[in-house]
User: Fold these one by one.
Assistant:
Number 1:
Amino acid sequence: MRQALLLAAGRGERLRPLTNALPKPLLTAGGRALIEWQVERLVRAGFTELVVNHSHLGERIEQALGDGARFGARIRYSPESPALETAGGIAKALPLLDASPFLVVSSDIHTDFDYSSLAGRGADIARRREEHVAHFVLVDNPPWHAKGDDMGIEDGRVTRTSPRLTYGNIAVFHPAAFRDIEPGTCLKLFPWAYRFVDEGRVSGERYRGPWVNVGTPEQLAALDRRLAS
């Protein structure tokens, strides 16, 4: 599994005014843009075929990352106008991906998660997509999302009856999961993707290492201080 989709189309409303003149993925922490941290980690893990979706000030992202050569990757872009939310954005980007499973990660998280550990999950999804269509990485509920999402993990499967955890914005999908979504449709990933959870077709793991979803100026500043130290 070498292909990954980086989600970078969010407006970053809670990060205003920082995002008035700069797209959220280009905000910096530890001396580099959030999306650059992600690209470098993905490439080190063997993901060298990258697609980035974008909307608000998306041309700035293309200018910053270019064709990906300086990272050792090939980067292509899926522009959206207006932004199509997560599931809608993935569906629009499908023509830029091949028919094999792919990784989906948000460009505004910072984590030490080992993306290379997902290769086996992708291989299993490729073999058994009727039974196994996705793999979710869940994290402990952060203070700003204390109740978690409507899912947890039991015996390696994501369920909606387990104690709640938070979706870590890291997943592997088979492209067939999105092919019923009409391109151009605006659609959030959840609750739409719970259909696969309810069918028992989503495996999962709980990641307890460093993970930050940057959503406010305070969170960005805290991450910057941590990385600087």
Number 2:
Amino acid sequence: MGITHFSNYLKPAQIVHDLKAKDKVHAIEELLDVLAKEKLIANKKLILTRLIDRESLVSTALGDGVAVPHARVDTGGEMAVAVGRSEKGLDFDAPDKRKVHLIILVVWNPSLPGLFNHLFAGLAHFLRRADFRQRAFEAKDKAELLNILSEIELRLPHEDKIVSRADLLKKLQEIEIKRQRAPKAQAKTLQAQAGLIREELDQALLARFDRLMERY
């Protein structure tokens, strides 16, 4: 597959240079408002619920001041992206306990499961660079931030994922064990949580996981 750029999914109207939100839930909602205004999503309430449910399972904060909240929901198109910058930073339950200054929110179509990993592979290459992150954090306006983000190239994903599959599998295991022992009403909720994680993992990996769970 050829190289594309992050800017192909991002217009100036999809960037909030200075988020007003004081916490991660309101930050996510603020970015969803941008996507709704641009008519890139139709059901803001449903998507907000999915995003918050996903955050409650495993934080999408990556460390080093960056978070990538995401949900697999029918957007009507391929993928909807919004970016927000917070000068003061927001508490996102990051693994390194640092505040988040750059939020890249992604909503993608269930019929295109590989597209999200494709995006993440490109983001990983740039976001691991301290100089790139610092330039994004210190962008003086929306135009400068867009210009910086436009440098991100998207390629086919490799095994080097920005999201730890091990963390997701561990959480999935915890949920599946609880579900087997839970009463019917609680099991339904746990099943929904498991579904959120399963959407982010490839089928071959899930097949191996399910075989191991059946065995042990």
Number 3:
Amino acid sequence: MQNAQLQVEQGFFGREFSEKELIAHAAQGNEKAFEAIMRRHNRRLFRTARSILGNDADAEEALQEAYLSAWKALDGFRSEAKLSTWLVRVVVNEALGRLRRKRLATIPLETVMNSHDPDLRVVLIDKREKQPDQQASRAQLRKVLETHIDRLPDLYRTVFVLRAVEEMSTEEVAEALEMPEATVRTRYSRARDLLRVSLTRDIDITLDDAFSFDGERCDRIVKNVLAGRASSS
């Protein structure tokens, strides 16, 4: 994504523009400038929308509409504010509006993780290993974490995604979601507790399946041992 972003910026402008310059060009209707802005913020904003709406398709639609709204309002953007924070707020408003319009049910499931462990958090980021088995196991773990995060109550999910997955500061999240920093800290802490309980429960349930010892493996070991003993006698 970063390479594509760089190609857009350098291919059109001949050099990599600062965010302030891109905003100025995009506000004047320059499509390439706004494309560069989207590529810079796409992943964070998609994750934000998805944390509210709960599925990829709705999140994509909400993000597209939010981008259109943001582009129209870009000429009124205050340069002293942080663009990423402003865009998060636009996406949150769009996603919440969709929830209200569709009257989607809240998903109240008491779950999701304590991501103090950097190895657990990194699987939520697009970081790939060269070895196929590591890539597959990392993808499986990422899917498990995403499922549990999706089950977080709406009250906590967006705060958790912005703080733990996107690694925004408490101050940035508070500004983006327009809530007190103390509320952000409380909801983030609660989300981690719920996630820890949820993951622990699932791990306990699946421990019996670890290192499975099926009939074929048992037969093979017995056969090899007997064969080895016969050949040595």
